Amino acid sequence: MNIHSLELINFRNYEHKEWQFKPSIMVLYGPNGVGKSNLLESIYVSTIGKSYRTNETSDLIQFGKEAAGIVVNFEKKETNHKINLRLSGKEKKEIRLNSNRISQKELMGTLNTVIFSPEDLQLIKGSPSLRRRFIDIEISQTSAMYYQQLHMYNKILQQRNKVLKDSYGKANLNLEEWDQQLANTASFIVKKRLESLRKINLLLDLMNRRLTNGKENLRIIYEQSYGDQKLVVEAKDFYELLQQALPQDRRRMTTSIGPHRDDLKFFSDSMDLKRFGSQGQQRTAILSLKLSELEFIKSEVGEYPILLLDDVLSELDKERRQNLLKFIHRRIQTFITTTDLDDVATLTDVMIIQCGERGQHEES
Fold this sequence. Notes:
The protein is α/β, with parallel strands linked by helices. The protein has ten helices and 14 strands. It folds into two domains: 1-112 and 305-364, P-loop containing nucleotide triphosphate hydrolases (Rossmann fold), CATH 3.40.50; 120-302, RecF/RecN/SMC, N-terminal domain (Glutathione S-transferase Yfyf (Class Pi), Chain A, domain 2, Up-down Bundle).
C-alpha cells in the first residue's frame, strides 16, 4: 500500500499545496509550527474521516474559508484509487472514492494507516477510553461489520442514557427495546475484540522479544469491571446484567454494563505495566504494540498499512528509535515528522520534504 500524491486545499495552514511521494520513507523536516503534523493529519482524516487531534471539523479549515479539501491518490493491492474529501464547518462532509460518493462508514478500511504520536506513549498510563479507541480503530480498519456494529452500539447507548435521564424519578421505566439491542451488539463487539486481541497478542509478544532480546513476555489482558471476574461475551448474559444494574443505572442516569466500560491491561510476565512498569518498559511495550499493529493489519488485509510517525522519534531513546527505523526501512511507506535530521541519519532511500512558509521539498 502506497500513497502516490496528496493535495490540500484550505486545510489548516495550507491554502493549496500538492506533493508527489515515493514508496519509501518521507521525512517531513522543519521547525515547529510550519505544518508538518498537518500533512500527517490530512492523511489520517482520509483514513477514518476524522482527525486524531480534534473533534471539530471546523478546526481543519483554514481561517476565513468555508470549506477544505483533501485529495489522496494511492495504490492498494496493485490497483490505483483516489479519495476526495470536502470538509465544511456547516455541512456534512462529502467523501468520494474514485468519483463515487461514499459514507464515512464505507471510507473506513479503504486506506489503512497506523499512527504513532507522543500521545500514544500515554496509552498504558492513560484513561481506558484511549485503549478502547486504539482497539476499536484497529479492528474497524480491517472489519466493516465491526465498525457498523460499534456505530450501532454507540447510537443505542446514547438513546438508553437519554431515556434514563429523561425518566429520572419516575416510577415505571421500560428499557426492553434498548436492552435487547444493546446486549446483542455488545456481544458481537466483545467477541470480535477478544478474537482480534488473541492475534495481536501473538504478534505483540514476538515484537517485544525482538526488542528486549527475549527477556520479557508481553501480553494484553481484556478486563471488565462487571461479570463476577468472568468475561461476559454472550448476549443473554449482557441482558441479564443490564436488568440487575437497572436500579444503579437509574440513580446515576447512565449505563454501567457493556464494552464502553471495558479496558485493556498490559502485562510484562506477571507485572502490571501501568502500576509497576518503568517508563522504559512502558515505552518498549508501546513500540512493540505499534509494530504489532502493522503486522496485524497486514495479516488481515494482505499488505502493510501506511505508517505515520508524528514527532515521535525525539521521544524515543537511540536504541528504540533504531529498532523502529530498522523494522520499517524498505518495507513500509512511512511519513515521519521531525525537527532534527539526525534522527533519521542512518536511513537511505528517503525523501526529505522541507516544510516551511513555501512548503518546498527536496529529495535525497
